[in-house]
Amino acid sequence: MPQLLDQGKARTMDEFIGQLRLLKAWAGSPSITEITRRVHQDWRSAGRPRGEWPARSTVGDCFRVGRRRPNPDLLLAVVRVLAGDEAAVAMWRQALRTVLGEAEASARVCAYDRLPAGPSLLVGRSRPVSRTEAALAAEGRPGVVVMEGAAGVGKTSLALHLARRAQARKHADAPALFADLRGFAPDRPPADTAAVLDTFLRLLGAAGERIPHGTEARARRYRQLLAGTGAFVVLDDAADAEQVRPLLPGDPASATLITSRRLLHGLPDATRRTVGPPAAADSVELLRRTAGAEAVTADPTALRRIADDLGHLPLALTAVGHHIRRHPGWTLDDYDHDTVITLALEGGVRRALAASDAQVAPGARRLLRLLALHPRDRTGVACAVALAGEREQTVREHLDALSATHLLAETEPGRFRMHTLVRAYAEERVGIDVPGTSIRQALGRVRCALRDTAPTWPRCAAGPGRDVRSTAAARRRAVQWRTTGWAAATPPLGGSH
């Protein structure tokens, strides 16, 4: 039997049912009546009483999506009938356990009728604050703003700051709701929308026995309770538009802030704001405040160098600032480029980027790693195609996926930039995930491409670039490939490049 079910593929019950339908087709598309007969036969042989045998309609329900309480025993009985292979049944059993565990975990939500305590420091950001507040106050329609940006860029801090400012202006009875949707949580599945609605309804005073079943019915009741209240809702770390759409109050008096690492399509009434790193001066000030009194009088040039090395990413600045505070014996000169990159990765940046990385398809993940071999932080489609060794259309789709999750930034059509910390993460991963043979093949494809496109090479590589130093073995390997392997793959073309 072909491996129709990849355990990592089915993460929800609906996806599991989709795979079960494929198994049914592979088995020759037997009728529900025939499947029921064979299940009865198996259960009779196993000595199960006739009263436990499923009805034909119950067996048919095994192939229906949208089920709330599936019968695992019957599902596996159907698999056994269709697969006829105990080894395959064992694989499906493990996958079903995973799916049911994910479903149970997704139903455990963090939702509150108050704003949680957020980071106390918000330095700068005056322009995004004013622009977002203007969008939230738009007349005649619900104020919905989606704040999209890379991991660690400060979306949640900004959202909570805006929410507190709005709450201070509203009357005391205006509801304030917050939910962590866990769209990119590294160790837990995204929050189930129906479970979030259940919690919101209880927080708004609905009795448990009066809460309807089903996401749509709960969403209608939720909007009824919020109508005219001037509610402010914060939906943090959204996975996609489908997850957040039922959670929108839909009332002109309300306001909703959504944060996500992904471009959220399918929210036509929402205003989108891309949150980038703060300005250089604000980054230095954040680093100074986090580091404490010792850094207040420190050399501003050294602080600026550290902020530049970290690409002005707030999560990284905070991690390094805390290290400076806790290690008074260190001088700022001890915080060289390699050290601050390592401290940032260890201080939460690696974990955050890994969660974003896990959300894209394997082909896009592989391309991200190969891009770490490029000598500069900017590259074009042609170089990406050569590195990946795939069709241009496929590579463009990978680049779009990486841009949609803010692992790359498209600075102009067909030109992409990799943040310095994303590059450091990719350097680690390419040394772990990509064999040396594949790296040599990628560089060889670049060499072949250059034979045909030498005049365009400056657009592709644009010179030797900088040398990102690294103490991690995997990153050293990537840097070595980039400095020696790339040079070997790209012979001198004459002139300055």
Span between N and C termini?
54 Å
CATH superfamily of the largest domain: P-loop containing nucleotide triphosphate hydrolases
Describe the sheet with the most strands: 6 strands, mixed
CATH topology call of the largest domain: Rossmann fold
* Major sheet strand order: 1-3-4-5-2-6
CATH architecture of the largest domain: 3-Layer(aba) Sandwich
- The general outline is globular
- What is the residue-mean pLDDT, rounded to a whole number? 83
CATH class of the largest domain: Alpha Beta
Computed over alpha carbons, the radius of gyration is: 27 Å
Number of helices: 22
When the domains are counted, the total is 4
| Structural class by sheet pairing and helices | alpha/beta
> pLDDT below 50 for ≥5 consecutive residues: which ranges?
454-472, 488-497
Q: Approximately how much helix is present in the residues?
A: 40-55%
Q: How many beta strands in the DSSP annotation? A: 9
**Percent of residues in beta strands?**
5-15%
Task: Please give a handful of descriptors for the protein shown.
Rossmann fold; 3-stranded antiparallel beta sheet; disordered C terminus; 6-stranded mixed beta sheet; 497 residues; P-loop_NTPase; single chain; DNA-binding; 4 domains; alpha/beta; DNA binding; AAA+_ATPase
